[in-house]
Predict the 3D structure of the following.
Amino acid sequence: MEKKNIEKLLNKLNNDFGFNLKYSDNFKMAFCHSSYANEKRIAKHLNYERLEFLGDAVVELTTSEFLFKKFSELSEGELTKLRASIVCEKTLVKYALLLKLDKCIFLGKGEEKMGGRSRAALLADIFESFTGALYLETNLETVKIFLNNTLFTEVKDLEYHTFVDYKTILQEFVSKIKLGNIEYQVLDSTGPSHLKTFTSGVVIDGKLYGSGSATTKKESEQLSAKEALEKLGYKD
C-alpha cells in the first residue's frame, strides 16, 4: 500500500509540475522508518534519517536563497528569524499532510499501533527526507520548483512582519534589560501519544512569565514567549 501511495505522489507531482519522477530506492528510503527497518531486518542506516539530514540542508539552502531574493531590504538577523519561522515543524507538518506523505511511510507494526504515522516530529522529518530524495533523483532546480509550490507559498504574498519568532525576540529583550536566565518547561501534556496537547511555560530568573498550549512543544513555547513579552511590556 505504501509503495502505491508513493507512486501516486510521484505521479501527481509529474502531472502538476511536469516532472519525470519514478519510484526508486531513494524514494522508498525517504519513507522508511527505523521501526520498519528493524522489523524487516534491514541494515540500520537504510531508513529515512540520512535523507532527512540531506533534505534539511537542501531546504535551508533553497529557503535562504528564496528569502534573500524576495526581501532585499532585510538584514542577516531578520532573514534568519524569517527562515526559522518558515522552516519549522508546524509548517513542514502542514505540507507533509497536504501532500499525503503520511500515507507513504513504511512503519513497523508497533510504531503503527502507537500512532507514529500522525507524529508531528516524524512528519516534519519525512518532508525533509523526501526533499533529500528528490534532490538526489533530480537536481536543485527541480527541488526549487517543488518548494516554490509548497513551503514557499507560506511567504510568497505576505510581508516580513507576518512572521514572528517570539522566542528569539524574548531572548534578545531579556538580555537587553538584564532580567535573568530563560528556561522553558513543559507544564502539562494531555491526550494520546499521537494527538497530545502541550502546555509550556517560560521561566525567567525563577519566575513564570508566560504559558501557552499547542499540539507541539515548539509551538507551545512560542506562545508562552509571546505572553511573556506582553507581560514585560515589550514594544516592537
In short: The mean pLDDT is 89. The CA atoms of residues 57 and 132 lie 8 Å apart.
